[in-house]
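anyone seen this seq b4? input:
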Amino acid sequence: MAKIKLTKTELKTQRDALKQFSRFLPTLQLKKQQLQMELRLSKKLLQENEAADQALRDGLASWIVLFGDKANIEDKVANYLTIEKIDCDKTNIAGVTVPVFNEVLFSVTEYDLYSEEPYLDDVIQAVKDVISIREAHKVLEEQFRLLENELRLTTQRVNLFEKVKIPECKENIRRIQIYLGDMDTAAVARSKIAKGKGVAA
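predicted toks r here
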């Protein structure tokens, strides 16, 4: 504990600090609760995204049989499909700016419907869906990381206020009040002694 001055000025400083810490603590506790709730929601969205990705890949297993293997699908689709842009926004969640996935914008090269397999349209759409889900997953992971980091920092602040700053201020106030009380008592005693000496003389 840092050494403090045992004065009325320091007493006021400590009381002001205690008032400030006590005022900010509920806000920090509320932010912590909001972040915990948002983190649970973020985790749920990640799990839903992973389940959708798995379901889509399971559905694509039948296409792999038609094309021979996964590499042939990727090569075939790569000839016609390119990613133009991954469209994301930013939003504020419990005081944290996080990215929000909107969509993946693709460009599809024209192809001859008579020379290609009749199911190529469906395969291209399925690959677009897979890419979109995976890009959304990256954004959701970043959201989760940012919220988790902010929760860690907020929890540290709550603990600092609850377990260090507020108890420290209360103890400092108690020590100063005891010291000032002792000084007042000593001053009264000295005054009585001086008065007694004055009467005796």
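The first helix runs from residue 8 to 67. The chain has three helices and two strands. kinda curious what u guys think
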